[in-house]
């Protein structure tokens, strides 16, 4: 079928809306008409690595829409279902069977190869393959092919798809790092470094969990103001003096639980230094490959640093939990979202980079 997609052709080049041919769903596939899709830093990071040799690429991995057709082997999903699309996992490897699908042994092949697991392309243009299947969806398009392992049915008919689309990755990552990994108790002193969509969804999750204090460290003034409106106990500008001392003062001796979303080695090192004894820092931001830490501080104070992908979440279980929190008013992610027409995708990218939009969501 002929669809419209936001195509990337080279690093630094803008997205262009073009017509491509999308395969009909195979027996194990689901055809989704995309209503909305979140714009994530991961999309832009992948785009920055595209060369002309890669050919055209369709990205997008926070899609939400309505199922139009399902293959004969699909169960649990029907035409007409409203769905959120998340990451793919094989469901057969040891990590998947242990309940850790975010660390699936086949993750790179299923999410980042640009093709189906069998190596075939899902999209074409003038007979030539177009790289797609990004996170098993490539949802920067009017339609996407997905699978049962990365489709979550939205039971609440009143849920706004543009609001809940980022639950597929960004909001799931931030909230999951808090609720699934850090698991703060009512005495917890929580700090998050970076107030983008991931960081602010983590703030909302920490508040929903009842953390005693919540500190946000963010250099962009408009994002600090939003964190303050969302109820952060303290908001710190890291460019204004000693950030470690400021975080320790705001948390009464250092955070017991902390999250870094920046991936900046110097920020991560400061976050570890600021931790209270026996505190834990979770890192979710991709950055430089090397990091210098004070091992004596780490060991003598019982501090822990842990990586985390997709909030350690099983989407079919965790996303419904977040939907319930949102419906109850305890996870107001709508405050983070700015919507754009898909035709304005390049403006959305510019606004996100400039800090004018925390979480752009594109709608058809």
Automatic annotation (TrEMBL):
It holds the Pfam family ADH_zinc_N. One of its GO terms (molecular function) is oxidoreductase activity. Gene3D superfamilies: Medium-chain alcohol dehydrogenases, catalytic domain, NAD(P)-binding Rossmann-like Domain. Transmembrane segments: none annotated. Signal peptide: none annotated. Its cofactor is Zn(2+). This is NAD(P)-dependent alcohol dehydrogenase. Belongs to the zinc-containing alcohol dehydrogenase family. CDD domains: benzyl_alcohol_DH (cd08278). Keywords: Metal-binding, Oxidoreductase, Zinc. Residues 12-362 form the Enoyl reductase (ER) domain. The keyword Transcription does not apply. InterPro entries: ADH-like_C (IPR013149), ADH-like_N (IPR013154), ADH_Zn_CS (IPR002328), ER (IPR020843), GroES-like_sf (IPR011032), NAD(P)-bd_dom_sf (IPR036291).
């Amino acid at each position: 079928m002929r669809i419209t997609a936001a195509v990337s052709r080279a690093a630094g080049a803008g997205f262009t809306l073009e017509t491509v041919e999308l395969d009909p769903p195979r027996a194990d596939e689901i055809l989704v008409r995309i209503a909305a899709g979140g714009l994530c830093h991961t999309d832009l990071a992948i785009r920055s690595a595209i060369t002309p040799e890669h050919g055209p690429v369709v990205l997008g991995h926070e899609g939400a829409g309505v199922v139009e057709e399902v293959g004969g082997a699909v169960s649990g999903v029907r035409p007409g279902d409203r769905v959120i699309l998340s990451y793919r996992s094989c469901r057969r490897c040891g990590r998947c069977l242990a309940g850790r699908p975010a660390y699936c042994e086949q993750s790179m092949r299923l999410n980042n190869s640009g093709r189906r697991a069998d190596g075939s392309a899902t999209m074409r243009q003038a007979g030539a393959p177009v790289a797609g299947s990004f996170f098993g969806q490539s949802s920067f398009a009017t339609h996407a092919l997905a699978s049962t392992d990365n489709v979550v049915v939205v039971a609440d008919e009143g849920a706004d798809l543009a609001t809940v689309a980022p639950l597929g990755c960004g909001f799931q990552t931030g909230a999951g790092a808090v609720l699934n990994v850090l698991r703060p108790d009512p005495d917890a002193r929580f700090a998050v470094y970076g107030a983008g969509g991931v960081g602010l969804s983590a703030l909302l999750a920490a508040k929903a969990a009842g953390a005693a204090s919540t500190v946000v460290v963010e250099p962009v003034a408009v994002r600090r103001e939003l964190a303050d409106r969302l109820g952060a106990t303290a908001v710190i500008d890291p460019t204004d003096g000693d950030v470690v001392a400021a975080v320790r003062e705001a948390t009464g001796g250092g955070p017991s639980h902390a999250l870094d979303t920046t991936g900046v080695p110097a920020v991560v090192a400061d976050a570890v230094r600021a931790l209270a004894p026996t505190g834990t820092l979770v890192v979710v931001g991709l950055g430089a490959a090397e990091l210098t830490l004070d091992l004596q501080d780490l060991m003598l104070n019982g501090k822990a640093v842990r990586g985390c992908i997709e909030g350690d979440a099983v989407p079919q279980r965790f996303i419904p939990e977040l939907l319930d929190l949102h419906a109850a008013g305890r996870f107001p992610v709508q405050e983070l979202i700015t919507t754009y027409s898909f035709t304005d995708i390049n403006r959305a990218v510019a606004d996100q980079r400039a800090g004018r939009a925390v979480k752009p969501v594109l709608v058809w």
